[in-house]
Amino acid sequence: MTDNIVRLAAVQTERRILPPPRFPMNVAREFVAEYCTHGDGLTLRHWRGGWWQWHRVHWREIEDRAVQASLYIYTGERVVG
Length: 81
Description:
Blueprint: H1 2-10, E1 17-18, H2 24-35, E2 37-38, E3 41-42, E4 44-47, E5 50-55, E6 58-62, H3 64-76, E7 79-80
Parallel strand pairs: 1-7
Antiparallel strand pairs: 2-3, 4-5, 5-6
Helix pairs in contact: 1-3
């Protein structure tokens, strides 16, 4: 997840319009499409009560707070529509 946090920090200056907070699933879909996919596959999954991230050749479990931090960074610098 730290790779995603670094990528997110690099685009902090980009101002994009996100759906309003009353549509959290739409915001989540944009986040996943932009930062949690590679090719046709997902690189972040929730499985058996934990978050798992694809790391080059294997899945590794990551903490909830790492996912939460990525979401805060993603939404923090964006304009809400």
